[in-house]
Amino acid sequence: MKYTLSSRSSSNSNSTSVVIISYLIALLLLVGNTSADGECSEVNLCAEGYCCSKYGFCGNTDAYCGKDCLYQCPSPPPPSPPPPPFAPPPPISPDDVSTIISEALFEEMLPYRNDNRCHAVGFYTYDGFITAARRFPDFGRTGSLESRKRELAAFFGQTSHETTGGGGWDAPDGADHWGYCYVREAQPQSIYCDGDTITWPCVAGQSYYGRGPIQLTHNYNYGQAGEYFGLDLLSNPDLVAMHTWPIGSASMRGTLAC
Asked: What range(s) does the Chitin-binding type-1 domain occupy (predicted)?
C-alpha cells in the first residue's frame, strides 16, 4: 500500500514538472531572447534601447542604429515642412521714386562716389537711397511728373554739391561728377552749436558739423531729425554718418531748417 501511494505521488510530480517546463519553453519562444550585445535576429532580439544591425549584432551607436539597422531601429524623424509658396513682390507704384531715378541714372550722376580718392566709399548706394525715399511718402511722389522730376533734380543737385570731392583740384569730368564723395564735413570750422536754442540744447563735447548727404548741421536740425527717427542725435551726432541714407537724408521731410 505504501509503495502504491509513493508511485502515484512521483508520477504526479513528474507530470507537473513537464507542464511547467513546457510552459516556460513556450513563453521563451513567444517573447524571444534579448541581448545588450552579441548576436541578434528577428527572433533573437536585442535588449531595450539597442538596435540589431544587418550584420546580426546588437549595439546603440550609429553603426547599429543608423543606415545599417535591420531590427528595433529608431523611428525616422518627421519630414521637414514644405517651403512656403513663392510670393511675388508687390508691384511698384507708378509714382515710386525709382520710376524716375533708375539705378543706371544714379550711377551716371554719381560715377566717382566709390573712388578711392573719396571718403565715403560704399556709404551711398542706390538701394539705400530708394529705401530712404520710400520712408517719406511725399518725397518725389506728389504733383505732376515734371514737378516730381524738378524736386528730385533739386535734391541731387544740392546733396551732390554739399558732398562733392571735386573742388579745388582738376577732378576728372569736373566737380559736378564727384558728388557723394564725403559723408562728414571736411575740416569743419565750427561745432555748429546755437546756444539760443532751448528745445534742442547742445551736449557738451559734441559737434554738429555737416554729416550725411545733405551735410546736416546745427543742434536744432540734429534734434529734429533725432526726434523723428527715435534717436538721441544730440548726444550721438555721428550716428548720422553711420546709417546709410535715412537719417542723413532727413531733409526729405522738408521740415528741417538747413
From this structure: 37-75
